[in-house]
Structures are given as structure tokens and as C-alpha cells.
Amino acid sequence: MEETLHDHAVIPRTDDEKDKVKKRLRRIEGQVRGIQKMIEEDRYCVDILIQISAIQSALKNVGYEVTERHMKHCVTDAIDKGEGDSSIEELMAVLKQFSK
């Protein structure tokens, strides 16, 4: 794993936050299993591609949610401590990977 500024969240996620993200990830996991079944059943390629697109969108939305939380908690905390530049650089590097 790459080096990061923090080993853990500045403000731990609430149980509700965790449950919401885990629920979305389980739904995505189900969609991936659905695509596997579609491949096994020799389903129409366009139908498979539509499902892949839906999964990509769902994962991006989870990523945006995690990014928003990171900005509101971790980056804000780093700025308050005078470490904002490093935190922003770290976030920008991840966002560049995320947007590929």
C-alpha cells in the first residue's frame, strides 16, 4: 500500500455511513455477479456493456461520496493544523488516478 498522510480517518465513520457504503458495494457486487451470469448465458454484448457502464457509474458515485467525506473531515483537519498543502497534493494525486 502507498504511503499516506494518515493511517486512519481523523473522524471515524459513523455506523450509518459505513452501512450506507457497504450496502452500495454489496449491490455493485451483485451486479458484477450478474454480468458473470450474462457471460455464461451468452447474452447480447450490448446488454452486458450497459451493465458494465452501470457498475462503473455506481463505483464512481461511491468514490465521490468517499472523496466528499475526505475533504470535509481529513483535508479540513489538515488545513486547520497547517498541513493543508500536503493533504491537498495527496488528494489531487488520487483524483488524477480516479478520473482516468
Plain-language structure description:
This protein has 100 residues and is mainly α. The protein is built from three helices and no strands. Helix 1 packs antiparallel against helix 2 (45-80). The model has no long low-confidence stretch (mean pLDDT 90).
Q: Give the biggest beta sheet.
A: none
Radius of gyration: 17 Å
N-C termini distance: 20 Å
* Annotation field: number of helices: 3
- Along the chain, the helix and strand elements come as HHH
Mean pLDDT: 90
What share of residues is helical? over 70%
Outline type = elongated
Number of strands: 0
Low-confidence stretches: none
Structural category: mainly alpha
What proportion of the residues form beta strands (DSSP E)? under 5%
